[in-house]
Amino acid sequence: VSDRLADPYVQSLQVDPVDREECQKDMDCDDWCKEAGGKRCVCRCPGWLSEGEFICKNTGKFCQKTPRNFWGGSFNVTSSSFSKQCKKHHHLLVAFSASSCLHCNDFEPSYRWASEKLEAKGVFLGRVDVDKEKEFAESNGVTNLPTIVAFHKCKNKGVYKGVHSMEALEAYAAKITNHTHAKLRSQADVEAFAKQHPVSVIGFFESPDNEQDEMDDFTEAAEDLKFSDSTFFGMVNSRDVGKHFKGKADEKWYKQSPAVTLFRNHDQDEQEIDKLIMSELDYRLRDWVMSKSVRLVDEIHNNNFVYYESLRLPMVLLFLDKKANNRMILRDMKRVAKRYQGKMSFGWLDGNAYAGRMVSLGLSENKLPALAMNTMQGGLYPFPAGESLDEGGFVRFLEDFMAGRLKPKGSQSGEDASKTAAEAAEQGVEGLAEVTAETFNDVCMDEGYDVMTLFYSSKDEVSKDFFIYWKKIVERFRALGIITLKVARYDVAKNQVPKGVEFDSPPAIVMFSAQDKTPPHKIFHGKAKVRPIMLWAQETASIKFEFPNDTPHLDDEQREAYLVQIKERDEKVGAERAKKKEERIAK
Q: How far is 395 from 333, CA to CA, in rounded Å?
């Protein structure tokens, strides 16, 4: 760490202790940023810049300038230079982010310092700016930013699904450069390995000379999943070691060799186990391991949602209040998940953080716990009101779904759409495009326009409060005569979120670029006020336009009054900050 702190660039960003201003969120740093001469400032932990520290007590955070984009990594990569780099560096991790992705900047310190550790192991961290290389990103399966994709000898080995921290990236580099499986030579080795990893897969082979084909299958599966960040393989090829774990299936880890036992250690207080006699397997061992590696009931978030969708199974999603005691309902869900394993995937989400996804699945965001199906066909299947959210209720709901007895809730009807349009007209929002599931492609995918769309919920108070700003944005773009940008809104309470559109919760602002309508789409992450949103629209729109000044949210009369207020405020704030600085120096 001392060497990192000595880095000239780090020193240029370091905040002197007497100038540190405590904060709790980024907007607390706006005035400090202006005084410090920074383009963008954030509220982060003390060790963020030098150690990639993300989690700390709010009382320890202070305002800091952000490092430059693409500061971290071994080198930058483009579609034209990729072939040369991957041939030169057999183990290559490529981090896809973008200059326009503000939250991507949070990981620059991790990428910067992790690359030193990675290179010592023969693994290199390349960087791609998706703003310039969107087609290259899309061809490699990138749908969210930032995303890291692993390559070995130029072959895409899949998306890295772990945490983007220094420690996690270093551990992943060690995994992909070591042997495909560990050799477990003692009882202690086996017992430790079974608990050591998120998913531990142990093969038991008592007679290696007679079980070579099965050992080859095991090695092949380990090789295929070498680039999984969570699944680790170990092999026991000694009868003397295996005898400690052999016995009745319900008491021991295996009853007949050759065998494979898989341990899921996702929960600290509960280990889940699946057992396999290899002679009974009629498909690839790799596929069996993958199907069993997912915890029966997992917490779903943005990083793993795409993986669950890739299983192409109906998803049973349970929304919870994380502050409540959910032990009983999760216990019941795990029991049901065992019953339907392989037919459906099961997960739970933070209902407060993912209220938008609740609404998009036909649920009321104010009622937790709640449950719904997420299907490839996009139908809305919310858990029936009045039913008990327990094991019996889960089973009845899922049996009705599988038997086709459940009728999906429809998307927004034409009558509803006309009502919404009428409501907008009553509010005097001329120029606002009202979008539904039926009209989404016609409006947002129109290649003649950049379309800035507000995804909101008509049942959400936050969305309702925000609409006054959205109305102002519509009015200002019309007043400024900017016709290449459409401003729209989409009610997720009445329409399922379109495929390829991803955000945490409403209200969310998404830009559908005229020049490229493919995901990942750019999402606004700044302060939810009129001016920052309008400036972001100007920056991200593919059809460029200009504002007459730096306050496009104001008309001429408002701008004149604003400038007077700013001058008076700056003088007052400057005096207060100078006084505080004198007090800190005195201490």
A: 9
SS3 breakdown of the chain: % helix, strand, coil, rounded to 5?
40, 20, 40
Give how far Cα 310 sits from Cα of 68, 136, 510, Å: 34, 21, 24
Burial of 455: CB neighbours in 10 Å, binned 0-12, 13-18, 19+: buried
Q: Which pLDDT score is estimated for 133?
A: 93
Residue 208 Ramachandran class (φ > 0 left, ψ -120 to 50 alpha, else beta): alpha
User: How far is residue 378's CA from residue 360's CA, in Å, rounded to a whole number?
Assistant: 10
Instruction: Specify the pLDDT at position 307.
Output: 66
Low-confidence ranges of the chain (pLDDT < 70): 1-2, 57-59, 249-250, 267-269, 302-307, 309-311, 365, 376-378, 410-429, 587
Contact status, residue 321 vs residue 352, Cβ threshold 8 Å: yes
240, 233 contact by CB (below 8 A): no
SS3 (DSSP) at 571: helix
308 C-beta neighbours (distance < 10 Å), count: 18
Q: Let me know how long the chain is.
A: 587
Predicted pLDDT of residue 465: 76
> Can you name the residues that pair with 349 across neighbouring β-strands?
319
The pLDDT score that the predictor gives to residue 410 is 54
Question: Closest by alpha carbon to 230, among 319, 161, 308?
Answer: 161
Structure tokens belonging to residue 90: 């057999």
What distances in angstroms separate CA 64 from CA 8, 19, 39, 60, one per listed residue?
A: 16, 10, 11, 12
pLDDT of residue 424: 41
Buried b (16+ CB within 10 A) or exposed e, 98-130: bebbbebbbbbbbbbbbbebbeeeebbbbbbbb
Task: Give, as one character, the DSSP assignment of residue 319.
Answer: E
Q: What does the pLDDT read at residue 376?
A: 66
* Pairwise CA distance, residues 164 & 101, whole Å: 16
Instruction: Record the pTM.
Output: 0.63
Interatomic CA distance for residues 495 and 380, integer angstroms:
9
> CB–CB of 23/62 below 8 Å?
yes
Tell me what pLDDT residue 417 has.
40
β partners of residue 200:
232, 263
Q: Helix or strand or coil: residue 156?
A: strand
CA 586 from chain center: how many Å?
45
